[in-house]
Design goal:
Order of helices and strands of chain B: EEEEEEEEEEE
Number of helices of chain B: 0
Distance between the termini of chain A: 33 Å
Shape of chain A: globular
Helix content of chain A: under 10%
Structural class of chain A: mainly beta
Helix content of chain B: under 10%
Radius of gyration of chain A: 13 Å
Largest sheet of chain A: 7 strands, mixed
Number of strands of chain A: 11
Order of helices and strands of chain A: EEEEEEEEEEE
Distance between the termini of chain B: 41 Å
Number of helices of chain A: 0
Largest sheet of chain B: 6 strands, mixed
Largest interface: A-B, 26 and 27 residues
Oligomer: heterodimer
Number of strands of chain B: 11
Shape of chain B: globular
């Protein structure tokens, strides 16, 4: 079982609200990632970080933002949630940044925007 | 276009039976291929990883094969159990470095009935 945690697990909010999805890992991994996954669809990388104060946008354009002030913490923020943001958000981490390094995933946050 | 296609989309088998899931990819250059298991409401967990020179890898009752010439992989599950019910995701990387990008399939949803 990977030591990577996400809160909340489920979130239902109204349009226009600001939300922050939390992700923490206790494995000391430098690399962290955020993915978006819709039901029956593939995972899409939306943000990643190779270390403290390092963040990059992923392959899928997203209106969310991320920060990496501490190694173990990688929160994702939506300034103004919209129904199009409804999805599952998965956080992951890996010891190295190479594609052969195993990514360990958190349990995910299922977000519903009404 | 780099793509990962999985089949079947869904599969129902009886407990104790064997099954084989397929993954075809067009990703080039090829670095490695990984199979993940994703339980409902959870994050994916890595089962196996294979590089270009490997054509088979086992993890308990899970056996993955790779044919890099035909760009095909399969995941064979032996003596299925109820706990095998999950989505199985094929992930292909195009480079072994930090520049490597991961291409995700949409998964095969396996249901094991008692």
């Amino acid at each position: 079982e990977a030591d990577i945690y996400q809160t909340p697990r489920y979130l239902v909010i109204g349009t226009g609200k600001k939300i922050t999805l939390e992700c923490s890992q206790t494995m000391g991994h430098d690399k962290m990632y955020w993915y978006q996954q819709d039901p029956g669809m593939e995972l899409h990388l939306i943000h990643y970080s190779y270390g403290v104060n390092s963040t990059e946008k992923g392959d899928l354009s997203s209106e969310s933002t991320v920060s990496r002030i501490r190694t173990e913490h990688f929160p994702l923020t939506l300034e103004s949630a919209r129904p199009s943001h409804t999805s599952q958000y998965l956080c992951a981490s890996s010891r190295g940044g190479q594609s052969t390094d195993t990514q360990y995933f958190g349990p995910g946050t299922r977000l519903t925007v009404l | 276009k780099n793509q990962v296609e999985q089949s079947p989309q869904s599969l129902i088998i009886l407990e104790g039976k064997n099954c084989t899931l397929q993954c075809n990819y067009t990703v080039s250059p090829f670095s490695n291929l990984r199979w993940y298991k994703q339980d409902t409401g959870r994050g994916p967990v890595s089962l196996t990883i294979m590089t270009f020179s490997e054509n088979t890898k086992s993890n308990g009752r899970y056996t993955a094969t790779l044919d890099a010439d035909t760009k095909q992989s399969s995941l064979h599950i032996t003596a299925s159990q109820l706990s095998d019910s999950a989505s199985y995701i094929c992930v292909v990387s195009d480079r072994g470095s930090t520049l490597g990008r991961l291409y995700f399939g949409r998964g095969t949803q396996l249901t094991v009935w008692p």
